Amino acid sequence: MILKKGASQTVIGLIFGCYAVCNLIGSLVLGRYIVQIGAKFMLIAGLFVSSGCTIMFGLLDRVPSGPAFIALCFIVRSIDAVGFAGAMTSSFAMTAKIFPDNVATVLGSLEIFTGLGLILGPPVGGWFYQSFGYEVPFMLLGCLLLVMVPFNIYVLPSIEADPSKDSFFHLLGHVKVVLICYAIFTLSAGLGFLDATLSLFAINKFNLSPGYVGLIMLGLSLPYCLASPLMGYITDKYASSRMVFMVTGAVITASGFCLLGPAPFLNISGPLWLLVVMLGLIGFSLGMTAIPTFPEIITYAYDQGFEEGLSTLGMVSGLFGAFWSLGMFYGPTVGGLITQHLSFEWAATVQGGLALQQYNQDYSCTHKTE
């Protein structure tokens, strides 16, 4: 639709890229001032803003082509990103506050629904688009988000807290926190890279239809759904295992990306079954690595003397969201450039190199901690 409205591929990339940038900034700012704003209000307001922007994005088809349409795309996407940042930052912080002893278990369980969204979103949205046109999928999704506003007003508790004097700079002054943030960055970069490039690669190499490509993506989403609650339960019960899972997950992720293409220097063929198996390994390893990161930063922050409460939880949530957004900007952008100028195989190998670097850093961090 955006192409038909006169936007170039570069402008389309910037429209989607601005979402990640605004999400990054919003996560940091809202995470720092979560106590002053109020966690419950931030979540409800974020849902309301995101629902409104989703509906508005569906209505942009009625805007005349040209600069006005492009400007509105930037505005709506940017505001939506800030709303989403508020909702996610506050939801992570409130989860950690309400379930302090089961943070990973609860987050891992919630990631089941993230996986279901990844599985059902493309086929269901595509069916509504083909059956009813461009506007209907956005309208339905926006209305679903809007329904959640009164539900959360009724269900969620209000959390009172005092502002902390600690800052993001203080938190990032610790090497372990920086290394875990790098792990978060590589995870989201990998997902962003696959989201932007895998479909076209599979269609061109294996002559698959878009429907079959959607089935292939199940190989990534289903293992992630299964791994997340399991890893959450184990890492809550055995907190010392978090870094072990992060290191192991990084090795599996690096191997999966190198064999996904596979890497040109391996000089092996890349049949379809290998692609599906590697996607499954990557999906499972992402669950191993991602779920322990958030509770591990919280535990380390408390051990370093940060105040136990909503203020610190908000900063950790904001930091998580910021580095996740940074990866979601880097993955499609850099991965797309490497794919365009070299090949998907080399781009996947570079992504595997990022995960391998994460392994080296996490391994060193584990031994220093011991």
From TrEMBL:
GO CC terms: membrane
Keyword set, alphabetical order: Membrane, Transmembrane, Transmembrane helix, Transport
Protein's cellular compartments: Membrane
Transmembrane domains' residue ranges: 12-34, 41-60, 66-90, 102-124, 136-156, 168-191, 211-231, 243-266, 272-298, 310-330
Bilayer topology annotation: Multi-pass membrane protein
InterPro entries assigned to the protein according to its UniProt record, in alphabetical order: MFS, MFS_dom, MFS_trans_sf, MFS_Vesicular_Transporter
Sample GO molecular function, one term: transmembrane transporter activity
Domain Major facilitator superfamily (MFS) profile stretches: 1-370
PANTHER family, A to Z: GH10249P, MFS-TYPE TRANSPORTER SLC18B1
Protein name as annotated: Major facilitator superfamily (MFS) profile domain-containing protein
Protein's organism: Amphiprion ocellaris (Clown anemonefish)
